[in-house]
Amino acid sequence: MNDKYKYTPDNFKSDQEIKWCPGCGDYAILNSVLKAMPEVALELKYKHERFTFISGIGCSSRFPYYLNTFGFHSIHGRAAAISTGVKVANPLLTVWVTTGDGDSLAIGGNHFIHAIRRNIDINILLFNNEIYGLTKGQYSPTSVLGKVTKTSPFGTVEHPFNPGEVVLGARGTFFARSIDMEVELTKKCLVSSAKHDGTSVVEILQNCVIFNDKTHYSFAKDKDTRQDNTIVLKHGEKMIFGKNKDKGLIQIGMKLMVVKIGEGGITIDDILRHNATEPNPGVHMMLVNMKYPNYPVALGVIRDVVDVTYDDGVRDQVESVRSHGSIHCVEDLLNSGSTWEI
Predict the structure, then answer these.
(1) Which residues contact 96 (CB under 8 A, 6 or more apart)?
(2) Where are the domains of the chain?
(3) Distance CA 173, CA 255 (A)
(4) CB 97, CB 32: distance < 8 Å
(5) How does pLDDT run across 39-72, given as a tens digit for each residue?
(6) How many CB atoms lie within 10 A of CB 178?
(7) Topology (CATH level 3) of domain 3-216
(8) Model-wide pTM > 0.70
Protein backbone atom coordinates (compact mmCIF):
# COMPACT_ATOMS: atom_id res chain seq x y z
CA MET A 1 0.00 0.00 0.00
CA ASN A 2 1.36 3.41 -0.99
CA ASP A 3 1.32 5.72 2.05
CA LYS A 4 1.23 8.86 -0.11
CA TYR A 5 -2.46 8.12 -0.80
CA LYS A 6 -3.30 7.10 2.76
CA TYR A 7 -5.21 9.74 4.72
CA THR A 8 -7.56 9.97 7.68
CA PRO A 9 -10.71 12.09 8.09
CA ASP A 10 -8.67 14.53 10.18
CA ASN A 11 -6.52 15.29 7.13
CA PHE A 12 -9.62 16.73 5.43
CA LYS A 13 -10.99 18.57 8.46
CA SER A 14 -10.29 22.30 8.79
CA ASP A 15 -9.70 24.20 12.04
CA GLN A 16 -12.78 26.40 11.56
CA GLU A 17 -15.62 26.42 14.09
CA ILE A 18 -18.64 24.69 12.57
CA LYS A 19 -21.67 26.96 12.62
CA TRP A 20 -24.90 25.15 11.90
CA CYS A 21 -27.99 25.01 14.07
CA PRO A 22 -28.01 22.29 16.76
CA GLY A 23 -29.66 19.18 15.31
CA CYS A 24 -29.01 20.13 11.67
CA GLY A 25 -28.46 17.19 9.35
CA ASP A 26 -25.48 18.97 7.79
CA TYR A 27 -23.30 17.75 10.66
CA ALA A 28 -23.97 14.14 9.66
CA ILE A 29 -23.32 14.94 5.98
CA LEU A 30 -20.00 16.56 6.87
CA ASN A 31 -19.11 13.43 8.81
CA SER A 32 -19.94 11.30 5.74
CA VAL A 33 -17.76 13.48 3.53
CA LEU A 34 -14.83 13.31 5.96
CA LYS A 35 -15.13 9.52 6.00
CA ALA A 36 -15.46 9.25 2.22
CA MET A 37 -12.54 11.43 1.10
CA PRO A 38 -9.72 9.19 2.49
CA GLU A 39 -11.36 6.19 0.82
CA VAL A 40 -11.61 8.07 -2.48
CA ALA A 41 -7.96 9.10 -2.24
CA LEU A 42 -6.81 5.54 -1.55
CA GLU A 43 -8.95 3.81 -4.18
CA LEU A 44 -8.33 6.32 -6.96
CA LYS A 45 -4.74 7.17 -5.96
CA TYR A 46 -5.51 10.86 -5.51
CA LYS A 47 -3.18 13.09 -3.53
CA HIS A 48 -4.75 15.46 -1.03
CA GLU A 49 -4.10 18.53 -3.18
CA ARG A 50 -6.38 17.23 -5.95
CA PHE A 51 -9.53 17.70 -3.83
CA THR A 52 -11.55 20.87 -4.46
CA PHE A 53 -14.90 21.86 -2.92
CA ILE A 54 -17.03 24.58 -4.48
CA SER A 55 -20.31 25.90 -3.15
CA GLY A 56 -22.99 28.45 -3.88
CA ILE A 57 -25.00 30.17 -1.15
CA GLY A 58 -26.92 28.52 1.68
CA CYS A 59 -26.33 26.47 4.80
CA SER A 60 -24.86 23.64 2.70
CA SER A 61 -22.52 26.12 1.07
CA ARG A 62 -20.51 26.66 4.26
CA PHE A 63 -18.78 23.37 3.49
CA PRO A 64 -15.56 24.79 1.96
CA TYR A 65 -14.75 26.46 5.31
CA TYR A 66 -15.00 23.19 7.21
CA LEU A 67 -12.79 21.16 4.88
CA ASN A 68 -9.03 21.26 4.57
CA THR A 69 -9.03 21.25 0.76
CA PHE A 70 -8.94 23.80 -2.01
CA GLY A 71 -12.27 25.57 -2.04
CA PHE A 72 -14.38 28.35 -3.47
CA HIS A 73 -17.45 29.84 -1.77
CA SER A 74 -19.13 31.30 -4.84
CA ILE A 75 -22.40 33.14 -5.42
CA HIS A 76 -26.00 31.99 -5.38
CA GLY A 77 -26.70 29.23 -7.88
CA ARG A 78 -23.39 29.48 -9.72
CA ALA A 79 -21.42 26.63 -8.13
CA ALA A 80 -22.00 24.27 -11.07
CA ALA A 81 -20.85 26.91 -13.57
CA ILE A 82 -17.70 27.72 -11.59
CA SER A 83 -16.99 24.02 -11.11
CA THR A 84 -17.24 23.52 -14.86
CA GLY A 85 -14.56 26.16 -15.38
CA VAL A 86 -12.35 24.69 -12.67
CA LYS A 87 -12.56 21.17 -14.10
CA VAL A 88 -11.83 22.29 -17.68
CA ALA A 89 -8.91 24.47 -16.53
CA ASN A 90 -7.40 21.67 -14.43
CA PRO A 91 -8.84 18.24 -15.35
CA LEU A 92 -6.65 16.54 -12.73
CA LEU A 93 -8.69 18.00 -9.87
CA THR A 94 -11.52 16.02 -8.30
CA VAL A 95 -14.21 18.69 -8.06
CA TRP A 96 -17.05 18.53 -5.50
CA VAL A 97 -20.06 20.83 -5.37
CA THR A 98 -22.05 21.32 -2.16
CA THR A 99 -25.41 22.93 -2.77
CA GLY A 100 -29.02 23.02 -1.60
CA ASP A 101 -32.39 22.57 -3.28
CA GLY A 102 -32.90 26.34 -3.43
CA ASP A 103 -29.37 27.13 -4.58
CA SER A 104 -29.27 24.58 -7.42
CA LEU A 105 -32.88 24.15 -8.48
CA ALA A 106 -34.10 27.78 -8.36
CA ILE A 107 -31.62 30.53 -9.30
CA GLY A 108 -29.05 27.89 -10.25
CA GLY A 109 -31.40 25.62 -12.15
CA ASN A 110 -30.04 26.48 -15.57
CA HIS A 111 -26.42 25.83 -14.56
CA PHE A 112 -27.45 22.62 -12.80
CA ILE A 113 -29.19 21.00 -15.77
CA HIS A 114 -26.53 22.03 -18.28
CA ALA A 115 -23.69 20.68 -16.15
CA ILE A 116 -25.58 17.38 -16.12
CA ARG A 117 -26.34 17.56 -19.86
CA ARG A 118 -22.67 18.19 -20.65
CA ASN A 119 -21.66 15.32 -18.37
CA ILE A 120 -18.63 17.15 -17.03
CA ASP A 121 -16.73 15.15 -14.43
CA ILE A 122 -17.86 16.89 -11.23
CA ASN A 123 -19.60 15.55 -8.13
CA ILE A 124 -22.70 17.41 -6.94
CA LEU A 125 -23.96 16.92 -3.38
CA LEU A 126 -27.54 18.21 -3.36
CA PHE A 127 -28.82 18.79 0.19
CA ASN A 128 -32.61 18.62 -0.06
CA ASN A 129 -34.52 19.90 2.97
CA GLU A 130 -37.44 21.10 0.81
CA ILE A 131 -37.23 24.66 2.16
CA TYR A 132 -34.95 27.71 2.18
CA GLY A 133 -33.04 27.53 5.47
CA LEU A 134 -30.38 30.27 5.48
CA THR A 135 -32.79 32.84 4.03
CA LYS A 136 -35.31 32.10 6.77
CA GLY A 137 -37.99 29.69 5.71
CA GLN A 138 -39.42 30.44 2.26
CA TYR A 139 -40.74 27.53 0.23
CA SER A 140 -38.26 26.09 -2.25
CA PRO A 141 -38.53 24.35 -5.64
CA THR A 142 -38.80 20.99 -3.84
CA SER A 143 -41.39 22.02 -1.22
CA VAL A 144 -44.46 19.79 -1.40
CA LEU A 145 -47.67 21.16 -2.89
CA GLY A 146 -49.66 22.94 -0.19
CA LYS A 147 -46.73 23.48 2.20
CA VAL A 148 -47.29 26.42 4.56
CA THR A 149 -44.22 28.65 4.89
CA LYS A 150 -43.43 32.33 5.44
CA THR A 151 -43.89 33.01 1.74
CA SER A 152 -46.85 30.66 1.33
CA PRO A 153 -48.97 31.29 4.43
CA PHE A 154 -51.99 29.63 2.80
CA GLY A 155 -49.99 26.80 1.27
CA THR A 156 -47.95 26.59 -1.93
CA VAL A 157 -49.76 26.33 -5.24
CA GLU A 158 -46.69 25.06 -7.11
CA HIS A 159 -45.79 21.50 -8.02
CA PRO A 160 -42.32 20.62 -6.74
CA PHE A 161 -39.28 19.39 -8.60
CA ASN A 162 -38.15 15.83 -8.01
CA PRO A 163 -34.32 16.17 -8.17
CA GLY A 164 -33.86 12.63 -9.49
CA GLU A 165 -36.39 13.22 -12.23
CA VAL A 166 -34.63 16.47 -13.19
CA VAL A 167 -31.26 14.69 -13.36
CA LEU A 168 -32.53 11.85 -15.52
CA GLY A 169 -34.48 14.28 -17.71
CA ALA A 170 -31.24 16.19 -18.34
CA ARG A 171 -29.60 12.94 -19.55
CA GLY A 172 -27.82 12.38 -16.25
CA THR A 173 -25.39 9.48 -16.06
CA PHE A 174 -25.21 9.14 -12.26
CA PHE A 175 -27.81 9.65 -9.57
CA ALA A 176 -27.84 8.42 -5.99
CA ARG A 177 -29.94 9.26 -2.95
CA SER A 178 -29.29 9.05 0.78
CA ILE A 179 -30.48 10.47 4.11
CA ASP A 180 -28.40 12.70 6.37
CA MET A 181 -28.49 10.29 9.32
CA GLU A 182 -27.37 7.35 7.16
CA VAL A 183 -23.67 8.26 7.39
CA GLU A 184 -22.35 4.96 6.04
CA LEU A 185 -24.79 4.88 3.12
CA THR A 186 -23.97 8.49 2.21
CA LYS A 187 -20.26 7.66 2.36
CA LYS A 188 -20.74 4.73 -0.03
CA CYS A 189 -22.72 6.93 -2.44
CA LEU A 190 -19.95 9.55 -2.39
CA VAL A 191 -17.24 6.99 -3.10
CA SER A 192 -19.29 5.63 -6.02
CA SER A 193 -19.80 9.20 -7.20
CA ALA A 194 -16.04 9.81 -7.22
CA LYS A 195 -15.43 6.67 -9.28
CA HIS A 196 -17.96 7.75 -11.90
CA ASP A 197 -16.54 9.59 -14.91
CA GLY A 198 -19.06 12.33 -15.62
CA THR A 199 -21.51 14.46 -13.67
CA SER A 200 -22.69 12.66 -10.58
CA VAL A 201 -25.52 13.92 -8.38
CA VAL A 202 -26.05 12.62 -4.85
CA GLU A 203 -29.30 13.87 -3.35
CA ILE A 204 -29.22 13.83 0.45
CA LEU A 205 -32.55 14.15 2.26
CA GLN A 206 -31.81 16.53 5.11
CA ASN A 207 -34.10 18.32 7.52
CA CYS A 208 -34.04 21.97 8.56
CA VAL A 209 -34.93 21.75 12.25
CA ILE A 210 -35.72 25.48 12.45
CA PHE A 211 -38.08 26.06 9.53
CA ASN A 212 -39.40 22.55 8.96
CA ASP A 213 -41.48 20.39 11.23
CA LYS A 214 -39.16 18.24 13.34
CA THR A 215 -40.94 15.17 11.95
CA HIS A 216 -39.98 16.05 8.36
CA TYR A 217 -38.70 12.87 6.67
CA SER A 218 -39.57 10.93 9.85
CA PHE A 219 -41.11 8.17 7.71
CA ALA A 220 -37.59 7.46 6.43
CA LYS A 221 -35.75 8.09 9.70
CA ASP A 222 -37.72 6.49 12.54
CA LYS A 223 -36.05 3.20 13.36
CA ASP A 224 -39.39 1.41 13.73
CA THR A 225 -40.62 2.33 10.25
CA ARG A 226 -37.70 3.26 7.99
CA GLN A 227 -36.99 -0.28 6.79
CA ASP A 228 -40.56 -0.56 5.54
CA ASN A 229 -40.60 2.92 4.02
CA THR A 230 -37.25 2.92 2.22
CA ILE A 231 -35.37 0.55 -0.07
CA VAL A 232 -31.58 0.59 -0.36
CA LEU A 233 -30.72 -0.40 -3.92
CA LYS A 234 -27.55 -2.32 -4.76
CA HIS A 235 -26.47 -3.05 -8.31
CA GLY A 236 -27.05 -6.68 -9.25
CA GLU A 237 -29.17 -7.45 -6.19
CA LYS A 238 -32.89 -8.09 -5.83
CA MET A 239 -35.04 -5.09 -4.89
CA ILE A 240 -36.12 -6.45 -1.51
CA PHE A 241 -36.93 -4.34 1.54
CA GLY A 242 -38.88 -4.29 4.79
CA LYS A 243 -38.07 -4.99 8.41
CA ASN A 244 -38.51 -8.71 7.73
CA LYS A 245 -37.05 -8.55 4.19
CA ASP A 246 -40.36 -9.88 2.91
CA LYS A 247 -41.32 -7.07 0.51
CA GLY A 248 -40.11 -6.41 -3.00
CA LEU A 249 -40.67 -4.64 -6.29
CA ILE A 250 -41.96 -6.18 -9.49
CA GLN A 251 -42.64 -4.55 -12.85
CA ILE A 252 -45.96 -4.82 -14.63
CA GLY A 253 -45.91 -2.96 -17.93
CA MET A 254 -44.58 0.53 -17.32
CA LYS A 255 -45.27 0.47 -13.60
CA LEU A 256 -43.54 -0.81 -10.48
CA MET A 257 -45.59 -2.60 -7.85
CA VAL A 258 -44.89 -3.43 -4.20
CA VAL A 259 -45.54 -7.08 -3.38
CA LYS A 260 -45.13 -9.34 -0.40
CA ILE A 261 -42.96 -12.40 -0.92
CA GLY A 262 -44.89 -15.57 -0.20
CA GLU A 263 -48.32 -14.08 -0.92
CA GLY A 264 -50.29 -14.61 -4.13
CA GLY A 265 -47.68 -16.99 -5.46
CA ILE A 266 -44.93 -14.34 -5.38
CA THR A 267 -41.42 -15.73 -4.89
CA ILE A 268 -37.99 -14.15 -4.74
CA ASP A 269 -37.53 -15.10 -8.40
CA ASP A 270 -40.30 -12.64 -9.30
CA ILE A 271 -38.56 -9.67 -7.67
CA LEU A 272 -36.72 -7.20 -9.93
CA ARG A 273 -32.95 -7.13 -9.85
CA HIS A 274 -31.42 -3.65 -9.75
CA ASN A 275 -29.34 -2.71 -12.78
CA ALA A 276 -27.77 0.71 -12.21
CA THR A 277 -25.79 0.47 -15.46
CA GLU A 278 -28.77 0.00 -17.80
CA PRO A 279 -28.52 2.82 -20.42
CA ASN A 280 -32.31 3.05 -20.82
CA PRO A 281 -33.46 5.24 -17.91
CA GLY A 282 -37.01 3.82 -17.83
CA VAL A 283 -36.80 1.78 -14.62
CA HIS A 284 -34.45 4.34 -13.06
CA MET A 285 -37.09 7.01 -13.64
CA MET A 286 -39.70 4.81 -11.97
CA LEU A 287 -37.39 4.31 -9.00
CA VAL A 288 -36.63 8.01 -8.45
CA ASN A 289 -40.34 8.79 -8.62
CA MET A 290 -41.40 6.31 -5.92
CA LYS A 291 -43.01 8.25 -3.07
CA TYR A 292 -44.12 7.42 0.45
CA PRO A 293 -46.70 6.18 1.50
CA ASN A 294 -47.54 4.16 -1.63
CA TYR A 295 -43.95 3.15 -2.29
CA PRO A 296 -40.68 2.91 -0.40
CA VAL A 297 -38.31 5.80 -1.14
CA ALA A 298 -35.36 4.55 -3.21
CA LEU A 299 -31.92 5.07 -1.67
CA GLY A 300 -28.41 4.17 -2.82
CA VAL A 301 -26.96 4.39 -6.34
CA ILE A 302 -29.92 4.38 -8.72
CA ARG A 303 -28.15 5.17 -12.01
CA ASP A 304 -24.49 4.80 -13.01
CA VAL A 305 -23.89 4.63 -16.78
CA VAL A 306 -20.96 5.43 -19.05
CA ASP A 307 -21.05 8.24 -21.61
CA VAL A 308 -18.67 10.77 -23.14
CA THR A 309 -17.70 13.66 -20.87
CA TYR A 310 -17.41 17.37 -21.56
CA ASP A 311 -13.94 17.80 -20.06
CA ASP A 312 -12.54 14.91 -22.10
CA GLY A 313 -14.13 16.37 -25.23
CA VAL A 314 -12.57 19.80 -24.64
CA ARG A 315 -9.15 18.26 -23.97
CA ASP A 316 -9.27 16.10 -27.11
CA GLN A 317 -10.44 19.01 -29.24
CA VAL A 318 -7.66 21.29 -28.02
CA GLU A 319 -5.04 18.60 -28.65
CA SER A 320 -6.42 17.98 -32.15
CA VAL A 321 -6.32 21.68 -33.06
CA ARG A 322 -2.79 21.99 -31.72
CA SER A 323 -1.53 19.00 -33.66
CA HIS A 324 -3.10 19.97 -36.99
CA GLY A 325 -3.02 23.74 -36.81
CA SER A 326 -0.28 26.13 -37.93
CA ILE A 327 -0.57 28.40 -34.89
CA HIS A 328 1.15 27.03 -31.78
CA CYS A 329 1.95 30.16 -29.81
CA VAL A 330 1.15 33.89 -29.61
CA GLU A 331 4.08 34.73 -31.92
CA ASP A 332 2.65 32.43 -34.61
CA LEU A 333 -0.69 34.18 -34.26
CA LEU A 334 0.82 37.66 -34.51
CA ASN A 335 2.76 36.71 -37.65
CA SER A 336 -0.16 35.00 -39.38
CA GLY A 337 -2.05 36.68 -42.19
CA SER A 338 -0.94 40.08 -43.46
CA THR A 339 1.88 41.51 -41.37
CA TRP A 340 4.20 44.49 -41.60
CA GLU A 341 7.65 45.07 -40.19
CA ILE A 342 8.54 48.59 -39.05
Answers:
(1) 51, 52, 53, 54, 122, 123, 125
(2) 3-216
(3) 22
(4) no
(5) 999 999 999 999 999 999 999 999 999 999 999 9
(6) 27
(7) Rossmann fold (3.40.50)
(8) yes
